[in-house]
Amino acid sequence: MIRIPILHAGLREAFPPVDLALDEPNGLLAAGGDLSVARLLDAYRHGIFPWYSADEPILWWSPDPRMVFATDRVHIATKLKRWLRGCDWTIAADRDFSGVMHACAAPRPKQPTTWIGSAMFEAYCRLHAAGHAHSVEVYAGAELVGGIYGVAVGRMFFGESMFSARSNGSKVALLALCRVLHDWGFPLIDAQVKSQHLVTLGAFELPRRRFIAHLDDYCERAFAPGNWRERWPLQRACELISLPAAAQTS
Questions:
Q1: Residue in 239, 201, 233 with CA at minimum distance from that of residue 87
Q2: Residue 213 falls inside a structural domain
Q3: How far apart, in whole angstroms, are the C-alpha atoms of residue 61 and residue 30?
Q4: What is the pTM of this model?
Q5: Are residues 50 and 134 in the same domain?
Q6: Residues 55, 119: one domain?
Q7: Cα–Cα distance, 165 to 169 (Å, whole number)
Q8: In this structure, are 91 and 168 located in the same domain?
């Protein structure tokens, strides 16, 4: 039987130290509590995130190692770069946060169920309204064809999910997010756990201790919360071909 600490809804209580997280399943740290804005922000600051199915209590995780993107080293393949030259898609931020979440929650061929249930949806919409959760949207005309959303704490961004309604939709959203966050002084994006798809885009693993050390620095760097819609500088997908040379690959 798995034994982990139980948190209580509505109480101000600290999370257990992340080095107490289980090895199997990797990173399981605690259960229970709630999805209030204050608790979620506290979780992210300490390298913890919620992830659970509809038939489970809230489960809190801090896996080791941790998957991340360096915002100045995301891969842009030569084929994608050529495609971007003629791409007329546009990019926005915080224009349709709920739409991006709904699209991320939709069933996929290899993922018929979703962990983004109604409680998670409502919790992250509250985070968005408070200026902490953000989305990047990619449009072909008026059609939302890709997007990504996550949480910003200081100058650290914690990615939650992304989607493509057309080929390359999520790649464009990720590249745009990396480009802008790099310009804003965000060194890393948390991608949580390893997948081969993330590896092909340039993500890599960090030991949890190093990841937490980065959080202790980056989360304390001042960056005012608030809606990104007006401050977002990148509007056209074709502008992504001017990413730094270190971000490009064959």
A1: 239
A2: yes
A3: 7
A4: 0.94
A5: no
A6: no
A7: 6
A8: yes
What are the pLDDT tens digits along the chain (250 aa)? 689 999 999 998 999 999 999 999 999 999 999 999 999 999 999 999 999 998 899 999 999 999 999 999 988 888 999 999 999 999 999 999 999 999 999 977 666 567 799 999 999 999 999 999 999 999 999 999 999 999 999 999 999 999 999 999 999 999 999 999 999 999 999 999 999 999 999 999 999 999 999 999 999 999 999 999 999 999 999 999 876 544 444 3
Look at the chain and report how many structural domains it folds into: 2
3 state DSSP class of 71: coil
Contact 136, 147 (CB under 8 A): yes
237: CB partners within 8 A, 6+ apart:
84, 87, 88, 89, 90, 91, 138, 172, 176
Residues 6+ positions from 202 with CB-CB distance below 8 Å: 69, 70, 73, 74, 75, 247, 249
